Amino acid sequence: MGLLKGNLFFINSKGEEIDVDKLFEKFEDDHERVLVNDEVGTIIYTADLDIFSIDVTFDGRLVPKKVNQIRRSRFGSPIIRIQIGGKIASYSADTIFYIKKRHCHPIGFPKS
To answer: What are the beta bridge partners of residue 105?
Structure first.
């Protein structure tokens, strides 16, 4: 899981709530942990930190789920980020695409 939802909070293995802002501040200069830091947002690697999100089931139970990445977007609109090999592409609701010879490419993203 790598998505940060508005009503989501994180806990450590002891069940204590984690302040996400402090987590980002702590690791902002850790190049091994910061997977992406660009104009779209920041993604930090958290798989080895024993961080869990809490999901609520339909019957009201709280279920912890291991979090491998935490993402913070710089935009208010939803962004989809896709990684294929060493390339990362980010798309928002207003991304412009053009169609050429039955292939659809977003404008501004290099073709392979």
So the answer is: 98
How many Cβ atoms from other residues are within 10 Å of residue 54's Cβ? 15
CB-hemisphere CA count at 13 Å for 77?
7
pLDDT digits (tens, 9 = 90+) for 17-61: 999 889 999 998 898 899 888 877 888 999 999 899 888 788 888
- How much is the pTM? 0.58
- For residues 34 and 99, give the distance between their C-alpha atoms in angstroms, rounded to a whole number: 34
Structure token pair of residue 17: 């709530």
* 26-37 residue pLDDT tens: 998 898 899 888
β 69-73/41-45 pair status:
antiparallel
Task: Output DSSP code: residue 23.
Answer: H
